[in-house]
Amino acid sequence: MKSTPKVLIFDVNETLLDLSPLKESINKTLGNEYAADIWFAELVQYSLVETVSDSYHNFSQIAQEVLRMNALKYDLELSEEELQETLKPITSLTAYPDVMPGLKDLKSSGFKLIAYSNGKPDVLQKQLEFAEIDQFFDHIVSVENVKKYKPHLDSYKYIVEASEVNKSDCMMVAAHGWDIAGAGRAGLQTAFVRRPGKFPFRLAKDPDLMVDSIEQLAKEL
Description:
6 strands
């Protein structure tokens, strides 16, 4: 690690919040135990299709359309209501057990904490309020403000400017190899959180920190 960061920028889904209820809902609707993993990968893919082709639809719109496309693979035609009902658990996810104590330790140690997500602003706010961790963040920010999805470099440039410190004083904390790769290439410090089934992208530079939990992150910093 270069130097102790001043600002910690947290990815939300799978880094702080457990996506299991949403995955179970998608798997049940599509009748396949791998459906949710495929859906999430394609959600990231199509968000980047929007970004690299200079278009923008919000994350909820893309999530719904990708789910509709995936349903067609199973010869299912889902109604608008069925699509929304399947994705409904996104706003009622719980935080991993290490998250609240970890954020509390980091906050009391004087770090500025920012939640930064590809998700819609209202969805993001509801997620953090439901998980009862919204109070730990100085800012809760969506890429909708910049209309470039992570891991596009402009999305990190935007959040660094919003944090009001140098990029070298910002650390991106995420459980996604693509998010860490983008942030590292944008010049931020990075901390990879080893959530189940998540691994860093080895063609990018190594994360500055590798931790098993937000509590461990607090101890390391």
